TrEMBL record:
Signal peptide: none annotated. GO terms for cellular component: plasma membrane. The chain crosses the membrane at residues 12-30, 101-122, 134-157, 177-198, 234-261, 281-306. The lineage of its organism: Bacteria, Pseudomonadati, Pseudomonadota, Alphaproteobacteria, Rhodobacterales. InterPro entries: BPD_transp_1_N, MetI-like, MetI-like_sf. Its main location: membrane. This is Peptide/nickel transport system permease protein. Belongs to the binding-protein-dependent transport system permease family. PANTHER family: DIPEPTIDE TRANSPORT SYSTEM PERMEASE PROTEIN DPPB-RELATED (PTHR43163).
């Protein structure tokens, strides 16, 4: 068990190191000069050189990477060109929008997917199964941004139940949650369609195994068999998808936040790309990549908790 955890943690650290090097290398290989964006094309070479020296852009690439990753380990990602504040402050300011949005979308995804997946499996081959799978196929085919526009037209423009965009802040929690309902729903409907199909397939596969049929033969009801035997054994592929979907929900906020004009990390990264704000873009790309890597790491840990066979020493 300890050796398995040590292996997973060492793999996590090595992966993050490779990801950071790739992010830094790709961002610095892109064409264009940030100093020209800030000062303009009519600026003098002396002014450009002074600005490069101020931000450390005149140092060799390897030296800049070591300085950047050393600062990142302490939470210092440099100073934003376009906002003239530390990048870490920008991330700390925008994270309370993006993280609750992703968490709310994950909760909605789990509720909708389990309801559709379990219901479809229990009514396999009947109209309820066909309706659930047709609905999930529609969810997979529809882009999240288009679905977001439809939700705004229906619930904000015509029904006027929810705000069409913007974020009032967490001083009024109820208003903040109302502002996140539509974007979270737009994110969740697409992801829940995928998870519902996986849930249905996993449950049907387990229900056909001998131990599930034996439980039914011993007199357990279908609901008891589902709760005690089928769902615990069907969790492994579901856990895999849930872990990866949370990473997709966080990165999916890049588009959704711009549709709903939310001041989160997704909107910040597009603003930074437009302004050629190198330090901010580097930090945000590293953040989103780290979320994906950590999601995979947590899925590995969830495997150990869900499947007791992984906690046993390998047979010699």
């Amino acid at each position: 068990m300890i050796r398995l955890l040590a292996t997973r943690i060492s793999t996590l650290i090595a992966t993050l190191a490779v990801v950071s090097a790739l992010v830094f290398g790709v961002m610095n290989a892109l064409p264009g000069d940030p100093t020209l964006v800030i000062l303009g094309i009519d600026s003098t070479p002396d002014a450009q050189a002074a600005l490069r020296a101020r931000f450390g852009l005149d140092a060799p690439l390897g030296e800049r990477y070591l300085a950047w990753i050393g600062g990142a380990l302490t939470g210092d990602f440099g100073e934003s060109y376009s906002f003239s504040v530390p990048v870490s402050e920008l991330i700390a300011e925008r994270l309370p929008v993006t993280l609750p949005l992703a968490l709310l979308a994950m909760v909605l995804t789990g509720i909708a997917a389990l309801a559709l997946g379990v219901g479809a499996a229990l009514h396999h081959g009947r109209p309820g199964d066909w309706a659930a799978m047709t609905l999930s196929q529609f969810g997979i085919a529809v882009p999240a941004f288009w679905l977001a526009i439809l939700l705004v037209l229906l619930f904000a423009v015509h029904l006027r139940w929810l705000p069409p965009g913007g974020f009032p802040g967490w001083d009024d929690p109820l208003a903040a949650l109302r502002a996140l309902i539509l974007p979270a729903t737009a994110l969740a409907l697409v992801q829940s369609a995928i998870l519902a199909r996986v849930t249905r397939s996993s449950i049907l596969e387990v229900m056909r195994l001998d131990f599930a049929r034996t439980a039914r033969a011993k007199g357990l009801s279908r609901g008891q068999t589902m709760r005690r035997h089928v769902l615990p054994n069907a969790l492994i592929p579901i856990v895999t998808i849930v872990g990866l979907q949370f990473a997709n929900l966080v990165t999916g906020t890049i588009v959704i936040e711009n549709v709903f004009y939310l001041p989160g990390l997704g909107r910040l990264i597009l603003q930074s790309i437009t302004n050629r704000d190198l330090f901010t873009v580097q930090a945000l790309v590293l953040f989103f990549a780290t979320v994906v890597v950590l999601a995979n790491f947590l899925v590995d840990l969830a495997y150990i908790l869900v499947d007791p066979r992984l906690r046993r020493p390998a047979a010699r």
